[in-house]
What we know:
Elements: H1 3-13, E1 18-22, E2 26-27, H2 67-70, H3 73-81, E3 84-87, E4 94-99, H4 102-111, E5 116-119, E6 124-129, E7 135-139, E8 142-145, E9 151-152, E10 162-163, H5 166-169, H6 200-215, H7 221-236, H8 244-256, H9 261-275
Parallel strand pairs: 6-10
Antiparallel strand pairs: 1-2, 1-3, 3-9, 4-6, 4-8, 5-6, 7-8
Helix pairs in contact: 6-7, 6-8, 7-9
Amino acid sequence: MNEHLHTALRLASDNVPVLPLRKGKVPFGNCPACAQNACGGRPNMKTPGPCGCLAPCHGWAAATTDPGVLRSRAWARAWRDAAAVAYHPGGAGLTIVDLDNVEAIAWARGSLPATRTVRTTRGEHWIYQGVMQSANAVRPGVDIKSTMSYVRCLGPGTGTMTALPDAVRALVVKEPPTVRPAPRSISVPARSGGCPHRTPAFLERGIAMAEQRITEARSAVHVAVYRTFLAVLSTHGRCGCLTDTHITRLFTAAQTKGETLRHCTEAWANARTTLGL
């Protein structure tokens, strides 16, 4: 049996979702049917997505614990060409603090509780029990790998795994973004009695529903954020109801799901352009 497949099956038997990596430590590219996510992507990391594709597509989302999928003909070529095995830490209930250099390791030893440790080419992986959003460059030489991410399998490591500490969660907490309110220079017909959207309950309910829609997105988060921004702007973008506070709430909800400030800003700008604002 292929060495990498053997490793993958062993990990999968321990309920760790795995996938093959090609040269360069990156996932295999999508098959033609899934190119550029045309199929809509996969909703989770354990089963084939709505497209019905059984190939190891969609990066980290292809990770699976199903031995039938791992041994399938659709995955055979990937295992034949694989350079390594990776796993989805969030799917295994884990968070990895990826320390890329000696300075980062020294910081971790002085700032974080000890846990299971795996040596890497340049540093160490500190493995904690618990799940959180992934984030890169949370401080010099430190990345967080958990949900919507993958980590190369480098062995079981040493030490006892401990619970994910608040000190690690705090690394990805962002300050609320500074954003511009929606433009108020667009002329619209005046309504008698003033703008109905200024009713506090109506506006608050709309923003709360938008936050909930973003928070509950299970896949295609970029698309969900854009469509939510579009819906909010189509209702409130022309009457001047939206304030910095409302927009910051939407951006914060999106960033909590893993979106960057740049992506939020681009999605907001694209929604405004679509609506001609």
